[in-house]
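[[Sequence with tokens]]
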Amino acid sequence: MILPFLFLITLLGGCTNNSACKFGGPAATSSTIPQGLGVNIHFTDPQPGEVKMIADAGFRWVRMDFKWDITERERGHYDFADYDRLMKALDENQIRALFILDYGNPLYDNGAPPRTAETQQAFAHWASAAAKHFSNRGVMWEIYNEPNNFRFWASRPNVNEYVELALAVGRAFRSETPNEKLIGPAVSEIDYSFLEACFKAGLLDYWSAVSVHPYRHADPESAALEYCRLRKLIQSFRTRSSSYGASSTNASLSDREIPIISGEWGYSSAWRSMNEEKQAALLTRELLTNIANGIPISIWYDWRDDGSDPSDPEDHFGLVRNSYQTGRDQVYEPKPAYRAARTFGDYFNGYVFQERLPVGRDDDYVLVFTKSGDRRLAAWTTSATAHRINISTDQGEFKITRHTGESAGSVSAGPTGISIEVSTQPVYLGR
């Protein structure tokens, strides 16, 4: 939903330009790479070697539907065996789960989204039972998937219905599993109207983070302004809570940060004017954008291609191709985006974002990451024309690595720093 521009100005406290919301400005949360990197999957029974390949790419999270209809086939009786098997594979590879509590159940309202009070209570009982079953295992629980999208909240999304469901789940978690982490609302894009309604209803009292799906055909760097606006909106409700009574659950809300999670976001290599090389560059820039703007968890959509139809964009969001390769070390054929993800995780392993360096143009990006005093840089531009930039840095030689892992030579810094060519394909610089 697109809000009128003037309404956004009022709603978001005047945060309408880059002077108020800077790329790489003050961040709510800083994560050590690659602890916040994740990928969406669509299975509970991985192929042999599949989860290892996910871990080898540097991913520390997977996001997966935790479906009501396959875990409650008889009213009040829950079977989580499918997810027990998945959790075993994830634990073996030190990967955490972000499970989406989602969709309807034919036992209730003929499988419609949880709209009625009875169905919402049944959903909440099931959700708290799932959280109790997997308690103390580092799972993050998300309430529904894109409830503002008619594909998932058929056939008419209604924020009030979603709010009632989310409140029921929040209360059940607080009563039964108070130490488990709950997030939401996993909206399609960054739907400020839907999000504001959730916040007004008090859902921030129950959530550890706010999850959004910042899909776009535009450059990933354009999300920075939207993140800033959303952060200001969250902050406005945290500030309001401080005036509530001490007995209110809101009393603790003003004392804690509520980060934004990029729970689902990708670029299809089959979109118009897209190819696999561009997809790899955009994955890298998406991760860099998120980390530089205080997004502690970034979940790429999707792990593997859903099919092989060259004309269907939905088949080509993956990091690897669709066909399983028995007996190979890499059991799925990597696309350039897989190599980009692996290079990013390896190159910046243990590093934390520090700052964006000014280099004279708003469309040129140079980010600094540090670890124990060591500095590494990522550099690129959103300009369609490659060009040279000057980076002020210490003297010495810097090795240049392409975002997909290949060496691109080296450059020596003089008294005024280094001069390199930047393009839409990021490069990394380090000693």
User: Anything to note?
Assistant: The longest helix spans residues 223-241. The CA atoms of residues 80 and 428 lie 43 Å apart. Residues 1-19, 242-251 have pLDDT under 50 and may be disordered. The chain has ten helices and 18 strands.
